Amino acid sequence: MSTGIDKTSGNGQSETGRGRRQVLVGTVVGDKTEKTVVVAVENVVMDRLYHRYTKRTSKYYAHDETNECRLGDKVEIEASRPLSRLKRWRVRNVIRRADER
User: Fold this and answer.
1) Contact at 8 Å (CB) between 69 and 60?
2) Mean pLDDT of the chain
3) 3-class secondary structure, 2
4) Quick one: average pLDDT of 32-43?
């Protein structure tokens, strides 16, 4: 028996779906562990006092289920539930391989 109520929110995502996840783009700087890569994400921040731009680099541990990422690859990672003590991100896709430069 259907109640006739649509279970989608205003943005087109269903209530049971994941919804919007935070997505970052970075470079793989470590791939030695099994099913895990270390991704460095650069962010440009303005200094509050001197109004100069500086680069800040953050490292994220991301889950790579198929072990397809290699050192130097540009990848897209998305936020997920905690997978281990340090892993809170999953590799969404590989944007560019390191050897394609």
Assistant:
1) no
2) 87
3) coil
4) 97
Question: Please, are residues 72 and 98 in contact by the beta-carbon 8 Å criterion?
Answer: yes
| pTM, rounded to two decimals | 0.77
Which DSSP letter does residue 7 get? -
The residue count for the chain: 101
Closest CA to 59 of 39, 44, 79, 73: 39
Give DSSP secondary structure letters for 42-88: EEEEE-TTT--EEEEEEEEEEE-TT----TT-EEEEEE-S--SSS--
Alpha carbons 59 and 3: distance in angstroms, whole number: 47
Distance CA 40, CA 14 (A): 32
Q: In order of start, what are the domains of the chain with their CATH numbers?
A: 23-100 (2.40.50.140)
- Integer angstrom CA distances of residue 1 from 4, 5, 7, 10, 40: 9, 12, 15, 24, 51
61: number of Cβ within 10 Å: 18
